[in-house]
Design a protein that fits this description.
The complex is a heterodimer of chains A (327) and B (287).
Chain A: H1 2-14, H2 16-26, H3 29-59, E1 61-63, E2 71-74, H4 78-85, H5 106-132, H6 139-147, H7 154-164, H8 173-178, H9 190-218, H10 223-230, H11 235-262, H12 267-272, H13 281-290, H14 294-323
Antiparallel strand pairs in A: 1-2
Helix pairs in contact in A: 1-2, 3-14, 5-9, 5-11, 5-13, 7-9, 9-11, 11-14, 13-14
Chain B: H1 5-36, H2 56-63, H3 66-97, H4 103-115, H5 119-129, E1 134-135, E2 138-139, H6 147-171, H7 177-183, H8 188-199, H9 201-217, H10 220-224, H11 236-241, H12 251-285
Antiparallel strand pairs in B: 1-2
Helix pairs in contact in B: 1-12, 2-12, 3-6, 3-9, 4-6, 6-9, 7-8, 9-12
Classes of the chains: A mainly alpha (327), B mainly alpha (287).
């Protein structure tokens, strides 16, 4: 036994690489698969799973601005109660949920942003997808142009709309002010900033919606339209009876992805204005963290995740209903 | 009744296409106008430039080392992309071609993790990177203000998409190719790199492009995991913020720097649009 051990050790010392390769060669399939997964497990474990569990653990404690690490006693779910009921509002930079101030409480602002932005993106994305589904000269370059906003960095996207709505510079400010859509100081007024951030998001993300819906459109059997032509159905009737029902699953998937991403909105707000003016849920976590209230920040982070989870499950239930043919 | 419905549809089509093109590209035109207008003439600007000052595109690099921020952004995105490709293709290969106990559970776990917002990872990672987490008395390395503090979380963020995409990609490669290679005397890892990797090159390239774009564009960790100095790995997020300070905001320079910052992405979209489309759609629609 000891001689073989020594032999292995020597081989490891002489030719470490071939020794390792030999070891790998002797693994069975299951062991080999686990070995291939090891780097992913390590990366996701340290950068995602551990932080997730640590954040949850933090959220069960009280804030302590003077303790090392900023975390106080274990209090169970008391923080969650305080933040959801509004009792902790005085300690937070902005309330988490307060219907009396819909534009400056995290949940209401985030939901308003998500619902309005995603609804507009769905309509525009559908339109773009219908265009890209046709074959015409120059389609390649039209597609490049339409995808381009999706690839613009968030900070540059923010800067574009910051400049557009900067009073005295942006061309959009005066006409919109006269219409009463935005206020006289649009970049420091919550309702106006919400409007601007929605416009910015629609500009960037409609293309993502379009690509997913386009993939759905392209999976539709073209013969169905020939049948439609033969029976004399108008384009609109064909859209209603063929295109729309068949593309609906793809639209739902696109909606799901966009809704989840929209509920995490942070960078656009920080660039265009600041997290105090428009405290979205992610914003509120960061500004609470910046106050040194780590435990409260962790709690808000987990409430955010839970709310996204609820929305996610609504979609999943919808998918399950469609799978059973209920539509 | 309309006489020729076909031509009406055609006109409608061109109007809609024009409308979407203008919306998509107008902001770039607007940035160009702002960048070219001298800063003292920038107020009450219409839709045409007020003067001609291409110097703004040089001033951007003098006032703030914007080229260094650009370099940092590109290096950070490259690092994250390399990590994701290496780690993700191993895992994608395992999920795509092997059956093992716990496969579904682990795959589901990867999916669940990817739905959590960045804020749920942030606080512990911040403490970890500032040396405030200790394991058995050894405190964590201070990665704050280094490349690792940004590129490691970003790799973890984009890894699930890569794993899912590559797993379906590896699954489509015909069985028996590895066996043939191993009969020829190739090792297991050798078969992976000599046979499977070349065959999956299109899929790997797709994930490389998409990961690079996502990480170059990312805001949350890019902003919060570094303080903002160009020599401490701060990416363009911080570079752009430095054109606004308490005393003055250089609107024309923000516009010029935004155009420069977007160039790598414009090139990637023009060159690799097919990869982007397939990467985004098959990742999402495979379920």
């Amino acid at each position: 036994m000891s001689t073989t051990n020594r032999a292995i050790w020597r081989r490891l010392y002489d030719k470490p690489l071939s020794a390792i390769l030999n070891r790998i060669e002797r693994l069975n399939d299951v062991q080999f698969a686990y070995l291939l997964l090891l780097p992913s497990v390590l990366l996701l474990g340290t950068m995602a799973l551990w932080p997730l569990l640590a954040t949850f653990e933090m959220s069960l404690h009280a804030d302590d601005l003077f303790a090392a690490g900023g975390i106080g006693q274990f209090v169970g779910f008391k923080q969650y109660m305080g933040i959801l009921s509004g009792q902790a509002d005085d300690l937070l930079p902005r309330p988490f949920f307060d219907l009396n101030q819909p534009f400056t409480s995290a949940l209401t602002v985030t939901l308003l942003f998500t619902v309005i932005a995603v609804a507009i993106e769905t309509v525009l994305g559908f339109g773009q997808a219908l265009i890209l589904n046709k074959s015409f000269r120059g389609r390649r370059w039209v597609r490049v142009a339409l995808i381009f906003p999706w690839a613009v960095p968030i900070v540059i996207q923010g800067m574009i709309f910051l400049l557009m709505f900067q009073p005295s510079i942006g061309f959009a400010v005066e006409p919109l002010q006269q219409l009463g859509v935005i206020s006289s100081a649009p970049l420091s007024d919550s309702a106006s900033v919400l409007f601007i951030v929605i416009i910015a998001d629609v500009w960037k993300e409609s293309a993502f919606m379009a690509l997913l819906i386009l993939a759905g459109l392209q999976s539709i059997d073209r013969d169905l339209y020939k049948v439609g032509d033969v029976v004399g159905a108008s384009k609109w009737q064909q859209f209603k009876t063929i295109t729309f029902p068949l593309v609906l699953p793809a639209v739902l998937v696109a909606l799901l992805f966009r809704t989840i991403a929209a509920m995490k909105v942070y960078g656009q707000v920080e660039t265009i204005s600041n997290c105090n003016t428009l405290p979205t849920m992610s914003c509120l976590v960061v500004s609470t963290f910046n106050m040194g209230r780590y435990a409260s920040a962790a709690t808000i982070a987990f409430i955010t995740a839970a709310i996204i989870g609820v929305v996610l499950s609504v979609y999943i239930v919808q998918f399950a209903r469609m799978d059973r043919g209920g539509l | 009744m309309i006489q020729r419905p076909q031509s009406v549809y055609r006109i409608l089509f061109y109007v809609a296409t024009g409308f979407f093109l203008v919306i998509a590209l107008f902001p770039i035109y607007w940035l160009t106008i702002l960048a070219l207008t001298p800063s003292e003439q920038i107020t009450n600007l219409g839709l045409l430039p007020n003067g001609f000052n291409p110097g703004a595109f040089i001033r951007v690099f003098e006032l703030v080392p914007f080229h260094l921020y650009m370099l940092n952004s590109i290096l950070l995105a490259t690092m994250a992309t390399i990590i994701v490709l290496l780690v993700g293709s191993l895992a994608g290969y395992a999920f795509g071609r092997f059956d093992f106990p716990g496969r579904t559970v682990i795959l589901l776990g990867v999916l669940v993790i990817s739905y959590f917002p960045s804020v749920t990872f942030f606080i512990p990672l911040f403490q970890l990177f500032t040396g405030n987490v200790s394991v058995l008395g050894v405190s964590s390395p201070e990665l704050f203000n280094t490349a690792g503090a940004v590129s490691l979380p970003l790799s973890a963020l984009t890894l699930p998409l890569a794993i899912y995409f590559l797993a379906t990609f590896y699954r489509q490669i015909p069985d028996g190719l590895e066996d043939a290679a191993r009969v020829e005397g190739s090792t297991r890892i050798g078969a992976l790199f000599k046979v499977i990797m070349p065959l999956s090159a299109p899929g790997v390239a797709t994930i490389a492009v998409v990961t690079f774009i996502i990480t170059y564009n990312e805001f949350f960790f890019s902003y919060l995991m570094v303080e903002g100095m160009a020599n401490q790995w701060a990416p363009i997020v911080h570079g752009l913020f430095r054109f606004q300070n308490a005393r003055h905001v250089f609107y024309n320079l923000i516009a010029a720097a935004s155009i420069i910052g977007v160039i790598p992405m414009a090139i990637l979209v023009a060159v690799a649009q097919n990869k982007i489309v397939s990467g985004l759609t098959s990742g999402a629609l495979k379920e």
